[in-house]
Amino acid sequence: MRILRILLEKEFRQIFRNPAILRIIFMMPAVQLLILPLAADYEIKNVNICVVDFDHSTYSTRLVNKIKASGYFNLVDYTESYDKALDYVEHDQADLLLQIPPLFERQLIKEDNASLFMVLNAINGVKANLGGAYLRSIINDFNSDVRLEWIQLPRLNPQPMIQVSSINWFNPQMNYQIFMVPGILVILVTMVGSFLAALNIVKEKEVGTIEQINVTPIHKYVFILGKLIPFWILGLVILTIGLILSRIFYGINPVGNVLTIYVFAAIYLMGILGLGLLVSTYSQTQQQAMLISFFLMMIFILLGGLYTSIDSMPMWAQIFTKFNPVTYFIDVMRMVVLKGSSLYDIRFHLLAAAAFGVVLNSWAVINYKKRN
Amino acid sequence: MMEDKVISVEQLTKRFGSFTAVDSISFSVSRGEIFGFLGANGAGKTTAMRMLCGLSFPTSGKAIVAGFDLYNDPEKIKKNIGYMSQKFSLYEDLTIRENIRFYGGIYGLTDGQIKSKTEFMVQHLHLEDQVDKLVKSLPLGWKQKLSFSVAMVHQPKIVFLDEPTGGVDPVTRREFWTMIYEAAHEGTTVFVTTHYMDEAEYCDRVSIMVDGRIDALDAPSELKKKFNASTMEEVFVQLARKAKRGD
Fold this sequence. Notes:
The complex is a heterodimer. Chain A has helices at residues 2-17, 19-39, 58-69, 82-90, 104-111, 125-150, 176-207, 209-214, 220-250, 258-282, 286-302, 315-321, 325-339, 347-367; strands at 47-53, 73-79, 96-100, 117-120.
């Protein structure tokens, strides 16, 4: 395949002569892997809370101190005015408002029953939800503290209690970075594969060199292979850089065999490059190709299970994720890195990736025409 | 009169929707001929040429190029033709040597052939000092001469040139035409579109397209006689004035 060799020679010369591509290849993994995982953290800290205390009793002070001591909350203000506190929420200075009603202590002691009122700022849904849950658990805790002080518990508790203790399998410390970094690496490999391949081919259309190629007797399969192989290799190079960086900076050592990741990535990249090729056959300019790729990537990434759990998506979205190649790679990465899954464990993922490769590339090849 | 026809076209037509870009044109070109393909902007020259090169499907009509049928054997045609498009089609981020190697390579030349071709071309174009420089650093005139040489790298039977001398100075144009003459002299048929009427005078025969049709086809001297004009420019203006579609 001498013609293929000539094509590859040319592509690699052009890639290594293009500083923008080199920058993307080396800078993108560095920036995305070193900065994003630190920021993209599910754990919520610094929930801004404002307490409205109409009671000013020992118990209300104890509760506030307990909240402060938890380390999750940041007391914005401790006030007696509900309106003032609501103002903080309305101006986004507070995420949570806790109101302790008058006579809180008295009711608690006399009637064994007291109520509290909570306002959540739902602009940032995640923060409100988690902050609310933290606060509830602190109050529960406070509640049992109070009970313990008052009553001498009998030897046999009349109310049976089930205590649950849990252990985080595969990720004992629930380290978000171990969870996020492999996923971000998938996004990186995917973006580089599809964007660069699509842009490269469309650039030839834009400049007009593709015309010169189309007027030669070169077979379109050879031409397409010559375009895809360089980016297939680049994708694997980026994966390698990413794995090395995540080992150095996050100490992530895949539990499973790294080769398993490479086998999957090699097949997966064929599908992704097919996608890039497909986009290029539908676009005339690099701008169009960029916009189409971007549109697809947004959907693939947001519905890929990196940031949100697929299991909690509505049914239609869950079905959609079956047609999202990114989902499979993120899954495989997490399985291999965290669980140590083997090739046999990911056999269905491999099959899916191969199917994407076949479908997308056939579609693209059919749609790629030397003559129109 | 059955000389060696390398291109014969019969009622070739190309429609884009309701627009007829090329309207049932018929002509033939002989081996070694320099065939000028003239017409105002939008007359359909490039579309016709693209069909003959196998870049565009004809809507109807027949064409035999370099002995092969346009519908059945486009890839065999491609082995035997060279094409230089209006858009500059060398890779600007490759050197002269690398461009020659690339195009020579995809036409199936061996390393030895590529090497001797490169030497010959570089010497011929006096580009010895530039051979390892990126093509983007060359002046336009040299780029176009290089493009032409690259289109000829596989010694095609026919070379199609689409406005090859657009935007270059008269001296370079003259040099370019010297190259065209050399190619024709060696037996290559040259099919060239142009807007420069002095260039039309250099052709063996010219056809003038108006609104997708060929309105005149003959040697420049015959056309001038027929239209009672002293220059090809006058002939062209007389015909082009009838055009209904503009730019």
